[in-house]
Design brief:
Blueprint (H helix, E strand, L loop, with lengths): L1 E2 L1 H8 L9 E5 L2 E6 L3 H10 L2 E4 L3 E7 L3 H6 L14 E7 L5 E9 L4 E6 H14 L6 E4 L5 E6 L3 H7 L2 E2 L8 E2 L2 E2 L8 E5 L7 E6 L4 H10 L3 E2 L2 H11 L33 H10 L4 E8 L10 E4 L2 E13 L6 E10 L8 E4 L2 E6 L15 E4 L1
Parallel strand pairs: 1-3, 4-16
Antiparallel strand pairs: 2-3, 4-10, 5-8, 5-9, 6-7, 7-8, 10-15, 11-13, 12-14, 14-15, 17-20, 17-22, 18-19, 18-21, 19-20, 19-23, 21-22
């Protein structure tokens, strides 16, 4: 498991004020798991500005005169009409319509850039290579020449601007090369505005040699260092499925409820016949959704969901909501449930716990809790 460029740089700085308290493998790379209290880090993502290592993301460059046409025939989103400087979320399917991976695809003019987790990149590149026949398309893994940091929270743009990285109003998944007036030494970077979600977010793509000084400058501007533990809290709270955990190769696109990945007007692509057949003949039997569990019993991933004494689904991710009172917790979960049962407000049983189906994304502020409630990873 490779260590990210940022983690390597932080480890080399013995006097750093933002050294991780623990590191772990996350989404294909070794990153900081936490810097201090993960509850505090999660709060920064919700209410302030959390900064985190995105070195676990890989980037693949597609060049050649056929790249747009070819890629449009590979993934579920519309690449043909993707404007320069914009991106889109997409699935890569096999011919049976099962999900081989997920990714963001960005149009950089002379190339397409595919961004995905390092844990997926080898399979995705192998699939690409398999389908390039007589096409003028070149695939190159450029992950080692570029890395990234992420910022999430309502103060994210203000922190970027304070650090001298001037970011205007951007559309979701729009990318720019910003004007840089930073004090830490000018760096060449690309800033991407995140998708529409409960929290505003940005990615800053830059050379590995520049990542540590940029990290320091953004912390000095007010960002709170955040590890993968708090990122998982935020992901589960937002109801975002993770490939390899919540999305598996056996799953069908419509089961995941990720309609943002599907375009039904773009024409043929690998697996399109199955996706269109599901759309035209009716919904799939399962759906991805959220659950609020009663009590503090441990609920592992894979736990079965039961309704009327029948097994109707399974859990894929779990987190817990601490109410502030000693020993009191509320647990939330993500998973799949039969569509006819998965109605918000429906009561089910998961393990030995009662649970209620919740609409995604999970509204943390609307969950039953005291004023000092904090979400933390189970």
């Amino acid at each position: 498991m490779a260590t990210t460029p940022l983690q390597e740089a932080i480890s080399a700085q013995t006097a750093s004020k933002a050294r991780p308290a623990r590191v772990s493998d996350y989404r294909g790379a070794t990153v900081a798991e936490r810097f201090a209290d993960p509850q505090h880090e999660f709060s920064a993502l919700l209410d302030g500005c959390g900064i985190y290592d995105l070195g676990f993301r890989a980037r693949v460059s597609l060049t050649g005169s056929d790249r747009v046409r070819w890629m449009n025939g590979m993934v579920t989103s519309n690449i043909r009409d993707l404007a320069v400087g914009h991106g889109v979320y997409a699935f890569l399917l096999n011919p049976q319509g099962r999900i081989l991976g997920d990714m963001y695809v960005y149009n950089q003019g002379e190339s397409l850039i595919v961004e995905t987790d390092r844990s997926q990149v080898e399979k995705i590149i192998a699939t690409f290579d398999h389908f390039i026949i007589m096409d003028d398309v070149e695939v190159a893994n450029v992950s080692e020449t570029q890395t990234a940091v992420g910022l999430t929270g309502p103060e994210s743009r203000a922190v970027l601007n304070k650090a001298g990285i001037e970011v205007p109003n951007l559309e979701p998944l729009q990318m720019i090369t910003p004007q840089c007036n930073c004090d830490c030494g000018c760096v060449q970077c690309t800033v991407i505005h995140g998708e529409e979600s409960p929290q505003e977010s940005y990615e800053v793509w830059l050379a590995p040699s520049d990542v540590y000084k940029t990290w320091q400058a953004l912390i000095a501007a007010g960002a709170t260092p955040v590890g993968s533990e708090a990122l998982e809290m935020q992901r589960i709270a937002a109801g975002i499925p993770l490939y390899g955990v919540d999305i598996r190769e056996r799953d069908l696109p419509q089961e995941t409820e990720q309609t943002r990945a599907l375009n039904f007007n773009k024409g043929c692509y690998v697996g399109q016949e199955i996706v269109e057949r599901i759309r035209s003949r009716g919904n799939v039997h399962r759906k991805f959704t959220g659950f609020l569990l009663e009590g503090a019993a441990e609920i592992p991933a894979g736990a079965k969901i039961v309704s009327a004494e029948k097994e109707v689904g399974e859990i894929t991710s779990v987190a817990a909501l601490r109410t502030g009172a000693p020993g009191e917790e509320r647990r939330i979960a993500l998973g799949y449930i039969r569509r006819e049962v998965g109605v918000p407000g429906r009561e089910v049983t998961i393990g030995s716990s009662k649970a209620t189906v919740i609409q995604l994304p999970l509204a943390v502020g609307a969950l039953p809790q005291t004023d000092d409630a904090v979400l933390h990873k189970a």
